[in-house]
């Protein structure tokens, strides 16, 4: 039984990062020991995983079958009808799922059991880890936030003369492209725009280019920057400057009274962004790392010592904190990318 549940979770992991405000979900339908249908929720607003699996198997074949789902089937009407009701209507006799949906007031588990469907909740640690950030995001109404930093061993994103290309190796760049592909938006600051003139695109075959987001309280923007003319989709600028106006048709300017981490993330969530990546200089990076709203921190370390006075140290604060008050992270995974180290962390 766990083998089929593992397959459903694997399908969910494959679409992680492309479902907007919705969770990534995978489903596998089994009858007489054979897989007859599979599905994954591919995009917000499209068919859910359970519906895709049912449609693949066919309405006649699913009668009496078992469906394995990475997340408890939904019971509410959103952009699509409840998956729990569709499962009931098709005659599937048994539902096995790996994680409870704690964000819903009414559960699909109860709806299906009341209709006579056998329902089994089989907790799976991989599924619970997969959905932990989604549950927090939905409860707070803020996106899942990952901060990415590429730095030297002494924590520099650039030299004191703002030379930053390239601290890490080409293989890290390829990994970052994959990381961007998994997010709906990339947040950067006007300083990065000024000194690096980045594109923040995904240079992968069939890669999905996230919306690029620029933070600039002052509203000082160089409209000649490559980003505004490369044709890779919409750009959002958050500012406190009420007089700032875009000179490009693909740029939306959002003026906020307080252009801080919380207000920006709140607005991005309302716009439908479920996952955002922060790729910025020390100022913006430090603001996000100091916020309890970030969920993941990815640090790429190159085996170099840059030195200098640390003008571009990736984490800087005006205050000096006691060790007992420092921001804590848990190391989830480490890997070696050629000669560079990748450290994946989650906020404790």
Q: For this entry, what is the oligomeric state of its chains?
A: single chain
Judged by helices, strands and strand pairing, the structural class is alpha/beta
Order of helices and strands: HEEHEHEHEHEHEHEEEHEHEEE
Radius of gyration: 22 Å
Spatial shape: elongated
What fraction of residues sit in β-strands?
15-25%
The largest pleated sheet is described as: 9 strands, mixed
Instruction: Supply the number of helical segments.
Output: 9
Number of DSSP E strands: 14
- Poorly predicted runs are none
Q: How do the strands line up in the largest sheet?
A: 10-9-8-7-11-6-12-14-13
Helix content: 25-40%
Distance between the termini: 33 Å
Average pLDDT rating: 90
Organism: Staphylococcus agnetis
Protein name: Riboflavin biosynthesis protein RibD
Pathway: Cofactor biosynthesis; riboflavin biosynthesis; 5-amino-6-(D-ribitylamino)uracil from GTP: step 2/4; Cofactor biosynthesis; riboflavin biosynthesis; 5-amino-6-(D-ribitylamino)uracil from GTP: step 3/4
Domain CMP/dCMP-type deaminase: 1-111
Can you put this structure into words, describing what you see?
- By secondary structure, the chain is an alpha/beta fold.
- It has 9 helices and 14 strands.
- A 9-stranded mixed sheet has the order 10-9-8-7-11-6-12-14-13, with helices on both faces.
- The chain is elongated.
- 42% of the residues are buried.
- The mean pLDDT is 90.
- Converts 2,5-diamino-6-(ribosylamino)-4(3h)-pyrimidinone 5'-phosphate into 5-amino-6-(ribosylamino)-2,4(1h,3h)-pyrimidinedione 5'-phosphate.
- Residues 1-111 form the CMP/dCMP-type deaminase domain.
- In the N-terminal section; belongs to the cytidine and deoxycytidylate deaminase family. In the C-terminal section; belongs to the HTP reductase family.
- This is Riboflavin biosynthesis protein RibD.
- Its EC number is 3.5.4.26, 1.1.1.193.
